[in-house]
Amino acid sequence: MTKEKPAIIISSPSGGGKGTIIRRLMQNNPRLALSVSATTRPMREGEKHGVDYYFLSVEEFRQKIKEGEVVEWEEVYPGKMYGTLRSELERLWADGKIIIFEIDVNGAMHLREEFGDEALLMYITPPSLEVLEQRLRERGTEDPESFQVRMQRAEYELSFQKEFDVVIMNDDLETAVADAEQAISEFLGK
Ligand code: 5GP
Prior knowledge:
Layout (H helix, E strand, L loop, with lengths): L6 E5 L6 H11 L3 E3 L3 E2 L14 E2 L2 H9 L3 E8 L2 E6 H9 L3 E5 L2 H11 L3 E7 L3 H11 L4 H15 L7 E4 L3 H17 L1
The site of guanosine-5'-monophosphate (5GP) has 14 residues, from strand 5, strand 6 and helix 4.
């Protein structure tokens, strides 16, 4: 059975390397496109509005929820909201794209309910919490408080792995990309 609105839903703790893997997947398969989420967190250096996220104020975000524009949303970190925009999905599906979602574990569970068999849930896991901590530190994007919050959140996120269809170990990047590509082609071939 071919899928009309295929959705690849990818979660991993902050620093788990999902951004790099997703970029590689998209380079290798032009049918894959990332759903750009909306967020109320501040923009990091080098990020662009409409490319990394739609950066909204809390009021703008709430307004979009009221208008029914937000398919799912979570307060992933205290005071920081993240959500999937309906307009984004409609645009990408109209273009015949296979949509990749880079979202937290609760968002992933919501989208499974929403999309059922059209969704593949993929969890990208670090070799250990220590490696995750080291990667997040090397990335250098977080102040000490945000760093602590992200590490605590990582333990919570990791406990959800068993709910996912596939778990990809991100120890070696090339192996992780190849494993993810294989899981996607098996899913799309079904
Ligand atoms: P970051 O602040 O590092 O860009 O992202 C933090 C977390 O928010 C990540 O775990 C990411 O998966 C999650 N996230 C990003 N966009 C969305 C979204 O649209 N919905 C949900 N539920 N989570 C999201």
